[in-house]
Design brief:
Blueprint: H1 2-14, E1 16-19, E2 32-35, H2 36-51
Antiparallel strand pairs: 1-2
Amino acid sequence: MIKRFLELLERTFRKERRYEFRHGMKTSDGLKSCQEITIAKITVTNIAEFCLGKQTTFSI
């Protein structure tokens, strides 16, 4: 069961979706295709900065 869960989690993280990325080149609609793992890393960084007081608001 754990192996199956980890396989599903890995597949989810490898998927790409459109995301409003703050840095780098963007498409004309302002979005970029990113892997879910990249989006998760960005979200964790935003949470850390919010908790440390570096950001006044937190959004996903």
